[in-house]
Amino acid sequence: MRWTASGVARSVVVMDQGIVALLSGFGLCLGLILSIGAQNAVVLRQGLRREHVGIVVIVCVVSDAVLQLIGVAGVASLVTAHPWLETIARWAGAAFIVGFALLSARRAWRGGGSLEAAPDAQPEDAQPEPSGSGAQVATRRRSGRLATLATILAVTWLNPHAIVETTVVLGSVAATHGDARWWFLAGGIAASTLWFVGFGYGARFLAPLLRTERAWRILDGGIAIVMLVIAVTLVLG
């Protein structure tokens, strides 16, 4: 097979567009995931308790991948099929991302951010156990697998705000990348997978750090910077 100079140049351009879309999807998706408190709280709780972490992680990863696919295959394809919608999607997406960045910057400036684990079951779940001295010591009963599954499904699929962000916002931004939108999807799925797997199984190591206000101010500041970069890239095309 003979390669011409124009063919090589075209391949390089396509690859560059794919890398930009991949990094954009990764950064935007990761920033949005960090803002969804209820879902992360359940992941944190189960990670700290080391109970049914696999179920929680799988539900989060698969659900997020499905929602992103709906956004890219649905919203992004619709925008791509109607070119006049691309300008609207580009500026609407940029406006949302800038607003998100400003909120993150505000939290970084004012502080007060935190991530607490979702509360455990009610006190009646505590079962008394006799101790060596004859006194009774309350011990926590393990949460059931079905109860955990129902909880993570509820906070994932009954959160309209999160669903809109994952489908409409990500889908609209993905549409601005044209044929490279599938690279954008790959970056988004990679970000959510890395986050949920790392956060679920590393919760016991991350929890002490993420419970400090300083850590969240730094994190929010970083998110604000990443979001602004994505917004500028989106507007400039």
UniProtKB/TrEMBL annotation:
**Region (Disordered): which ranges?**
114-139
Q: Does the keyword Zinc-finger apply?
A: no
Top-level taxon in the UniProt lineage: Bacteria
Q: Which UniProt keywords apply?
A: Cell membrane, Membrane, Transmembrane, Transmembrane helix
Where in or outside the cell it occurs: the entry states:
Cell membrane
User: TM spans, by residue?
Assistant: 20-43, 55-76, 88-105, 146-163, 183-203, 215-236
**UniProt KW Cell membrane keyword:** yes
The record describes its membrane topology as: Multi-pass membrane protein
InterPro entries documented for this protein: LeuE-type (IPR001123)
Pfam families per UniProt: LysE (PF01810)
Q: Name the chain's protein.
A: LysE/ArgO family amino acid transporter
Q: Which organism is it from?
A: Agrococcus citreus
